[in-house]
Amino acid sequence: MQKIILFLPCIFLNIVLPVQQVNAEESNVVFSSVWLNGIDKNLETLIFEEDKKIYIECQALNTLELRGEFFPKHPIKQDFCLISMNPVLAEIDPHVQSVKITVPAEYFQVKKINQEQLIMPDRAAFGAFLNYDLFYGQTSQDKNFNSLAELGVFKDYWLFQNSILVRGLDENKEEPTLALEEVMEEKVVRLRSAFDLDFPDKFLSLTIGDTTTISNPFVNSVRYGGVSFGTNFTARPDYIYWNMPTLKGSAVLPSTVDLYINGVSISQQRITPGSYTLQPGALIQQSGDAQVIVEDILGNKTVQSFPVYINNKLLKPKLNEYNISLGKIRYNYDLQSNDYREFFSNVYFRRGIGNLTTLGLNAAYSEEVKNLGLLWTQAISKYALLDTFIAGSDSNNGSGYSVGGSISRNLNNIYLGFSGQYSTNNYKTLGYDNEVLIPKYDYIFYFSMYDLPIINNFNLNYLERSYYEGNNFNISDSRILNIGISRMLHPNLSLSVSCFKEFKGEQDSGGYLSLNYSLGNNKNAYFSHSTDNETRVQFVKASPAQTGFDYVLGANQRRGNLAYQASGLLKSSVGDLRVQLDQSDEYENNQVIYRGAIVWLGGKVALTKSVDNAFALVKVEDSPEIDVTRSLSPV
Asked: Over 135-171, what HEC string results?
């Protein structure tokens, strides 16, 4: 019996003692507040100390926006992570029951902060609209009536449009009017039929039907019927696609980041500790000296300065802009419905290489004309923007090339620039036949200064254009210089004076003087006189409101002939009616124009002003102070 009695206590001791040891470890786990880099984070979590190492709940690291992969987990208690290790410092303060942690900036989660968060457009409900323009004109010689109708059907991100122009024949004409190339003018003309589909998450658009090519310096935009696919950055006014600087850095304390350009505050953003990538949301285009000032909550400041040239011609680094077009080129689109001719294809591509450089190309092909050109847009530090191109062509008339460029500079109150282009005699562009004459040289220089003493504003521009000798159009060269100044004579009165001089061609010259007096309530009085013995007086009421009545009353005298003008615009919620009268002893020109629309959405039909895209119903009658906008513009 004694052996049994002695055996049982041994079993009891072997079982109880290990349990008491585990309970002793668990008693070291305590609640503690957290201080991070000297700041009380108002956070309580579990911590414990083992072998002079401090552990904290891993989920607290995420709350503190720290990168969990840098903190090893406890080998047994997987919910706790080690925080006392180089370069992280940690200590427990028993007096205030807190753990104080000090970490470098790279241990924080990396954040990309956008001041302006992009908002995805909502999908449109199924709807339709029918725009209509009614025009009646009467002159001394004839009368005519024209109408334009545009049908649109939309849903989600697609829109189908079809527009038709109906011409009224002149009562006094016995023969139909012939346009260039002896093209018969049709009475009913289909102007455009197209299906547009947007991909707003990718900033892409697809168009099937009548559209135009992308315009660039060496291939002018042409109308065609076919397919177009490419980026549509400008359709989203909230998206900054140009070279707005991205600010990168790190902070160990909550801080404020300010961006200044030429001493003017552009944006301000509050950041949490850690590395950050900040995209200012300001829609700016400026050049000069930029400063980034980072100030933490303790008042410590760091300042970084660098030159910038921000312009919407410079794409964001690594951002691609492109368009692919193919189909048949359309001629005389406002005269005939189906004048589609040669097949063509066109590829346009640009890429932001860096904040200061954007490169691109354009390649066009048709049986008549082949074009290939290269684009280079370069900011020269903070001083100027250089935009250059070189293009070649191959046509039935032979091969040719064109080279040109422009340089511009905007600085505070000074704007100046120069652009020029040289083309060989055989250079041709897509969509243009031999009846279009391309100049040999084409130069323009402009210079403007604002906020000047005495004269306030000054501007100068010089244009020179020369053609090859023996051209079929007998067009003479031209050289024209224009100089103008303007000044506020009174808070409500402004003066403008300008003059011009032709050094080629007719070698004419003259001057122009105008006065503008603001009467308040959207009313203005205008007076102008030119050295060509023409004087004009007008009284104008023009309001930006969507409803109301605007009008113009005036008279002008030209070389002894007196004429009178009167026009009125009645703006209503169902359309706009304009009436215009222009009469003198020698002629008369009277017009009546009405523009409106019929819309359908959600089973409801209404008469409204003309629309140009998908729309939504917005109920504001119970909240009259709410602003309604479309694409960031008030409606």
From this structure: EEEEECCCEEEEEEEEEEEEEECEEEEEEEEEECCCC
